[in-house]
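During the first year of the project, the team set up a workflow for recording each protein of interest as an amino acid sequence followed immediately by a discrete structure-token representation. This format lets reviewers and collaborators read both layers of information side by side without switching files. As required by the reporting guidelines, we include two representative entries from the current panel. The first entry is reproduced here exactly as it appears in our internal archive.
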Amino acid sequence: MHELSSRASGPIVEVNCAAIPSELIESELFGHEKGSFTSAHKQKLGKFEQANGGTLFLDEIGDMSLSAQAKVLRALQENRITRVGGEKELPVNVRVVAATNKDLRREINLGTFREDLYHRLAVIIIDVPALNNRREDIPMLVEHFLNLVCTEYGIPVKDISARPSPLAGTELDGQHPRVAQCGGAARHLGRTND
């Protein structure tokens, strides 16, 4: 999406919102000034600044705290951010792409996701069904990751069509780690000698 857009010449910056503790997410997204907290020994640019002119991908946005959601909403509405410990507002021009494995409508009803942020982000919604519901895609994914890994390691691409699927009989939930496991299976198969 980024590479085929008018922002392709700009950066693409990814943030896994679930992997960043709630007390650090603001600093990660908006940056901080030197001395703004104990371990802030130097100024740090946040992800919004790093993505300026390009795309900011907020993965697992459904896991972001309500406080951080409010600040992201403000940044999207005003195209401005303020670093933690800073006073100056900085202009930013980013396209935000967000992903989550949560049902955000349900999270809104539970009070754990802001409805106004949802509407700001939900301009175009792409619903990717769980891999469990599209098992016919598994051979194509395994082939893709096998080709990727074989190319990466400089080894001939293996023909695994006669082999049983390494994922046969497993319960797939359609989340990225499961797709990465397909890559791991392809990596394992790519290293075999037969």
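The second entry, processed by the same pipeline in the following quarter, appears below.
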Amino acid sequence: MPELLPEWHPQWGVMIAWPHASITGTASLPTLETTYVQLAKAILAQQHLLILHQDEAHQAHIEQLLNTHGLPLSLVQWQAAPYADMWVRHYGPLTVKHPQHMELHQFATRHGDAASAHLQLGSHEPTRHGLRFNAGDISSDGRRNVLTAAQGQPQAEVEAMLREHLKARRIWWIHEGHLLGASPYQIHDVARFCNAYTLAYLQCNDPEDEHYPLLKALEKELFTLASSEGFDLLPLPLPTPQYSSQGERLPASYTRFALINQTVLVPTFQSPTDASALEQLASAMPEYRIVAIDSRSLLAHKGSPHAATLQLPKGVI
């Protein structure tokens, strides 16, 4: 039976798009690159890393950074691509496993990025769809059920695509819980499956926080769904408020973790809630190593470890 592979399926590696000044500006690039080196170190300890880059000069610069930190370049593959978005989850493919082959599906990005048209992933030619959708819009439980909050798209069109191309059996729509500063609303902002029977979600217990009514409504919606569908809920605390240099509240969330082989890359924010989030995820996933990634530089651009990475299952490359 064809199935959309969940994020915990064994991986060949992870794809990232290295930041560059034309995306980020020169002021924030050094701190972003420090965070990307952290991501690369954690990934290369477990598996391969495919790095999208601009050109030969950009690749040489990244190689120098990785060499300086003693990272194994033998596990790195390189691909030049004209990307204008470092959040590779916006345009990377989702993988459906068939009995005898893998099938990759890419979607039109909301961000107008052209990189998806230039990706070369082994011998697999992705099937491209015109629907504006991306890998952060769904969370799969590995049992052909998907959770989504794909707002701004026709629900019937999204459901038809999920059933026909991603082989979803049931589609669970979430309507509550939009984080301030997150645009568009994506399910990974507030809820993610850790495994087939555990859903992590963002919880707010402070009535004074502006997210309180939004996340309480989400919690109620998820309680109803979990009760009827038979999975467990794992509450993760809402981080203390994080703001941009212009005073805008940023969408900090611990549900935007990245799953790689035997390891979870968890965003942290120098917040008092970091320790609790790390402990909660460790308790729910005892077979995984929990690695904290200081994600404040990613958050400044409204990103996260999950947005910055895309899993490539074994058999894709």
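For the second entry, the following points were noted during internal review. The helical segments are 21-24, 29-44, 56-68, 155-164, 212-229, 274-284, 296-299, 305-308. Residues 212-229 form the longest helix (18 residues). Both points are flagged for discussion at the upcoming steering committee meeting.
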